[in-house]
Each structure stands twice: as structure tokens, then as C-alpha cells.
Design a protein that fits this description.
It comes from Aquibacillus halophilus. Keywords: Isomerase. One of its GO terms (molecular function) is cobalamin binding. The protein is α/β, with parallel strands linked by helices. A five-stranded parallel beta sheet has the order 3-12-11-10-9. Strand 1 and strand 2 form a beta hairpin. Helix 2 runs parallel beside helix 4, helix 9 crosses helix 15 and helix 11 packs parallel to helix 13. It is globular, with a radius of gyration of 24 Å. Bound molecules: methylmalonyl-coenzyme A (MCA). The site of methylmalonyl-coenzyme A has 30 residues, from strand 5, strand 6, strand 10 and strand 11. Methylmalonyl-coenzyme A binds next to strand 5, strand 6, strand 10 and strand 11.
Length: 549
């Protein structure tokens, strides 16, 4: 059987096996059909000037796995969390019951910046943008009745990433689940916090030490866990271009790699489970090309610059979230359509994991109904649209290949510029990156003003007043503080002091990996803030414009 696009030939195609009459071929190379009965091979190659590449092969432009979604679907991973641990537990279990196949947890702002629910800075923020976690007890509640050995969990936490990761591990350990069974991702990408997201605590040097300590520790003990999710998403949401999104994320990745190599890590050990996080914005073909180009650039960086030997180190694994900044509060139902197009770009771009925004997210956290529609959007793409039947279906499109080349060239040029001006840390400290993003953001704003970029029905229409929005529980802060006080009264406070003291001493030793000390503290029910305060004392706090804290 020959594909309709290759004139009866299938040179360089794995399906040659079948054509050569070899039996026992993998089922993935079977012919599938469109709804109208047109046969579809698992991959197509054509024009001579377009690289005749397969997926699963360096430099992975077409995808990191040979059969992509024929072998395994992407992880359907809706980012969720609000209120108390038990509120969020109910939402996570609801999503699993609706056939979501992976979890992604949002933490509230106090947790993200290392404060407990009773800190004055936390007032009015407890449980607002994510779940409130003060101690191990909250984490146990969050994952109550969720089989951690079966489901992969992502946690969006950065400055206190190590603390929350240790709480997750301690929760699993209490249930007899071993480190080798746990799979998931911890965001742990502190560098982008300084340029785009804002939830940093300590100066960059100490933050990078904490991040790399966690990466090293996870790589040794948790073979199925991704120890970092290096984000271009937040950079894009802050107003960058697609080229900047990829370039700045890769520049940050190089900082972590360089630091780890300085500490004596072996590149293939460190790099084989690095993961990334990108946006799926509105410009459909550009987004597809961006993902393709990013895979190719990363593979070349790892192989040619870092001399990594293992294919796993060359492969760009990434999560995608549809662009939150493109949602409109007017006629919010239209957001379902926007999200569908963006999600389709992510899938055609070969994402490993996907969050689709809910239609009401420009207004509030999503309700159960709206998140179900967002989830169904992914399921409809996966199960009804037919787009997963062949790998990289846009590969070979003159336009998409042109965009892919253009994005690659732009990213490489920007990475070189950062290198020539002294590297990413310097670029962050001098505000170069922030300025570049601001300029791009301003230009995009001007284009919107001048109507060159459009959001349909973004103005002049009234809010859909039929819509029920998510409301926060007004009593949550009080109950959260009450249970925090109870824990502080009932735990072994001598052990708490001992653990915090051990952590303090270890923090002064630059060679020490701090994770085992954090693990002990977490198991003794030390709070997020108590542990963070140890680091505040030792490392200081970062204030913008004062890199030494
Ligand atoms: C905006 C908001 C905020 O600011 O607050 C946020 O940040 S939200 C941020 C939310 N962030 C996230 O949710 C991040 C999510 N990230 C991730 O899930 C990860 O980092 C990921 C992108 C690498 C995806 O990991 P995953 O476990 O879901 O999926 P993987 O693709 O790694 O697949 C799991 C296993 O199946 C294998 N596998 C996957 N696909 C195939 C295939 N087609 N053929 C053969 N094998 C395959 C993989 O190699 C892997 O095996 P093996 O394990 O053996 O290699």
C-alpha cells in the first residue's frame, strides 16, 4: 500500500517493512482511514527539498517518538486547585472521573512565596488562585483517595518547589508507595520568575542552588519524575514573541545545565528528564512551526554544544497550555473556539501534555461545568477529529517548513546575542530580558490598538450575565489558620527545632544537597513558612534592582 502523497513510493519510511512483506510489523504502521475512507499511513514524506525525516529520529523536528499519538496519547492535564486541600481534592477526583489521565496542581499565592496562611501577607489570598498548603497534613488531604502510584502529578511551584515536592513524597511514603513508582513534574523553574512570573523569594544564586539540588536529587531517586519544567509560557504571556519564548526558555535551561556541570554532574544524567512548558497562542501555523523548531534547536544544543550522548537528552519534552492572555471576558463562550484552535496547534506541534483553558478563566477560576468543556475539547480532538492518525501531518507543508526554519534562525540568533553579552544571569540582572519582553509586549499592544491583531467581540458586547462563576469560600482563611494552629500545638516541637537547625547548618555549606534536610523537616510537620524562613535568614531575599538581596 502506498500513500496518496508519495506517488507510490515510501522511501525511508518504516512502513517499508510492510511493503517488503515482513510479517509481525508493529500495529502502529497499519493503514488507518479518514472518515471518508481515505487511507492514512503513519507518516508522509515528499518533496526533495524538504528534509525527508522521520519522527523519533534526531533532530526530532517531526516528533520525539516514532509513532507519536498512535502509541500513546498526550497527557490530558488540566491545571486545577483552589480553596482548601479538600476542595481541591474533590476537583482533582472529578477530573479523573471525567477521564482526565494526569493531574496538575495550582497552589495559592502565600504557598508560592513561602508564607503560611496566618501570615499578614496572606490575608485575603488564602486559597484564591490555588490550593492552600501549610503542612504535610494539607498535602495528605489534597491527594486523599488518589492513587499516586498510577497517576502522574504536576505541581506548579517554584521558590518553595523542594518543600512541596518533599511533602508529596512523604504523602506517598506513608501509603507505602516507593520513589520509583512516582511519576510527575515539579515546575522548579525559578529563573523565569525573575523575568516574567514574579514568585521568587531568594537571590538568583541561592535559588539556582535550590533548583539544581532538587534536580540532582530527583534524578537519583525518582527515575520517573521530571525535576523541572522550564517555562517559555510565562515569558510569552508577559508579552514576548514566539521566538523570544523559545530563546529565553532555552537560555534559562542552559543556566541550569551549566550550574549542574559546574557542580560535577554528568550531562546525560542531568538532562535526560528535563522538561519544558510552552504556550499555544493564536497564530495557528506559527505555533505549530514553533514547536517543531524548538525540538530541532534543543536537540542540536544538547548534542552539539553539550555533547550529550543519549537520545533522551536530545529530545525536547514539553507541556502546553493554551494562551490565557487571549481569553476575553466579553462573550466568554467564544473562548471555547479560541482554545480549540490553540489546542489543535499544540497537538499538531507534537506536545506531550496539554492544558486547555476554560471559557470563564478571564473572569474567575473555572467552574466544574466550564472545566469539563475544556477537558472535552481535548477529548474531541483526540477521539473524534482524526488528527492523531498520522505523525506531524503539517510536516512538508511549504509554509510550515518555512516558518519552522525562520523560527529556528531567530531563536539561534537571540541565544547567540545573550551569550555574547555575558549570559542569561547577567541579562536578567541588568534587566535586558525584561526590557526585550516589554518592547515586544508594547508592539503587540499597539497592533491590537491599530486593529492589526484582532480579538473578535472583545469590546462593545456586554458580559454573558447567564454565567455562573466560581466563588471562593469566605470562611476558608479562618478554618485554614485554625487547623494550622492545631498542627503547631500537636506536633513534636523539639523535633521541629532540631530539623530546622540542621537545615540552617546545611544551608551554610555550599556543597551540601539540601533536599534530605528539607525532607526531614517536612516529615516533622514543619510549615512551608518555617522552612522558607530558614533560607530567608541564610540567603536573604531578592528585591528587584538589588541582585544580592
Ligand atoms: C500558568 C500556570 C501558572 O503560572 O500558575 C502554570 O504554570 S501551569 C503549569 C502546569 N504545568 C504542567 O502541568 C507541566 C506538565 N509537564 C509534564 O507533564 C511533563 O514535564 C512532560 C511534558 C514531559 C510530560 O510528561 P508525561 O509523563 O505526562 O508524558 P510523557 O510524554 O513523558 O509520557 C510518559 C511516558 O510515556 C512515554 N511515551 C510518551 N509518548 C510515547 C509514544 N508516542 N511512544 C512511546 N512512548 C511514549 C514517555 O517516553 C514516558 O516514558 P518514560 O517516563 O519512560 O520516559
Amino acid at each position: 500500500m502506498s500513500g496518496p502523497h508519495n506517488g507510490g513510493k515510501s522511501e525511508g519510511n518504516i512502513s517499508d517493512n510492510k511493503h517488503n512483506g515482513i510479517k509481525n510489523h508493529p500495529k502502529e504502521i497499519d493503514i488507518l482511514y479518514t472518515n471518508s475512507g481515505i487511507p492514512i499511513e503513519f507518516i508522509y514524506n515528499k518533496k526533495s527539498h524538504i528534509p525527508n525525516t522521520l519522527s523519533g529520529v534526531y533532530p526530532y523536528t517531526r516528533g520525539i517518538h516514532p509513532y507519536m499519538y498512535r502509541s500513546k496519547l498526550w497527557s490530558v492535564r488540566q491545571y486545577s486547585g483552589f480553596g482548601s486541600a479538600s476542595d481541591s481534592n474533590a476537583r482533582l477526583r472529578y477530573l479523573l472521573n471525567q477521564r482526565q489521565n494526569a493531574l496538575s496542581v495550582a497552589f495559592d499565592l502565600p504557598t508560592q512565596i513561602g508564607y503560611d496562611s496566618d501570615h499578614p501577607f496572606a490575608e485575603g489570598e488564602v486559597g484564591n488562585v490555588g490550593v492552600a498548603i501549610d503542612t504535610l497534613q494539607d498535602m495528605e488531604m489534597l491527594f486523599n483517595n488518589i492513587p499516586l502510584e498510577k497517576v502522574s502529578t504536576s505541581m506548579t511551584i517554584n521558590a518553595p518547589a523542594a518543600i512541596l515536592f518533599c511533602m508529596y513524597v512523604a504523602t506517598a511514603e506513608k501509603r507505602g508507595i516507593s520513589p520509583t513508582q512516582l511519576s510527575g513534574t515539579i515546575q522548579n523553574d525559578i529563573l523565569k520568575e525573575y523575568v516574567a512570573r514574579g514568585t521568587y523569594i531568594y537571590p538568583p544564586k541561592a535559588s539556582i542552588r535550590l533548583a539544581t539540588n532538587l534536580i540532582t536529587y530527583i534524578n537519583i531517586h525518582f527515575p520517573k519524575f521530571h525535576p523541572i519544567s522550564i517555562s517559555g509560557y510565562h515569558i510569552r504571556e508577559a508579552g514576548s514573541t514566539a521566538i523570544q519564548e523559545v530563546a529565553f526558555a532555552f537560555a534559562n535551561a542552559k543556566v541550569y545545565l551549566d550550574e549542574a556541570l559546574k557542580q560535577g554532574e554528568i550531562v546525560d544524567h542531568f538532562a535526560q528528564r528535563l522538561s519544558f512548558f510552552f504556550s499555544a497562542d493564536n497564530d495557528f501555523f506559527e505555533e505549530v512551526a514553533k514547536f517543531r523548531a524548538a525540538r530541532r534547536i534543543w536537540a542540536k544544543i544538547m548534542k552539539e554544544h553539550y555533547h550529550a550522548k543519549m537520545p533522551k537528552s536530545w529530545q525536547l519534552r514539553f507541556h502546553t497550555q493554551t494562551a490565557g492572555s487571549r481569553l476575553t471576558s466579553h462573550e466568554p463562550d467564544n473562548n471555547i473556539v479560541r482554545v480549540t484552535i490553540q489546542a489543535l496547534a499544540a497537538v499538531l506541534g507534537g506536545t506531550q501534555s496539554l492544558h486547555t483553558n476554560s471559557k470563564d478563566e478571564a473572569l474567575a477560576l473555572p467552574t466544574e461545568d466550564s472545566v469539563r468543556i475544556a477537558l472535552r475539547t481535548q477529548q474531541i480532538i483526540a477521539e473524534e477529529s482524526g488528527v492523531i492518525k498520522t505523525v506531524d501531518p503539517l510536516g512538508g507543508s511549504y509554509f510550515v517548513e518555512y516558518l519552522t526554519d525562520e523560527i529556528e534562525a531567530g531563536v539561534v540568533k537571540l541565544l547567540d546575542e545573550i551569550e555574547q553579552t555575558g549570559g542569561m544571569i547577567k541579562a536578567i540582572e541588568t534587566g535586558f530580558i525584561q526590557r526585550e519582553i516589554n518592547v515586544a509586549s508594547y508592539q503587540s499592544f499597539r497592533q491590537t490598538e491599530e486593529k492589526k491583531q484582532k480579538a473578535v467581540a472583545s469590546e462593545g458586547f456586554s458580559l454573558d450575565n447567564q454565567m455562573t462563576l466560581h466563588e471562593n469560600n469566605p470562611l476558608l482563611e479562618k478554618t485554614q489558620i485554625h487547623s494550622l494552629n492545631e498542627i503547631k500545638l500537636n506536633r513534636d516541637n523539639l523535633l521541629v527545632s532540631l530539623c530546622l537547625d540542621n537545615l540552617r547548618k546545611a544551608s551554610y555549606d555550599e556543597q551540601a544537597n539540601l533536599i534530605p534536610f528539607i525532607m526531614e523537616a517536612v516529615k516533622a510537620y514543619c510549615t512551608v513558612e518555617e522552612i522558607s524562613n530558614v533560607f530567608r535568614t541564610v540567603f536573604g531575599e531578592f528585591k528587584e534592582g538589588n541582585p544580592n538581596g
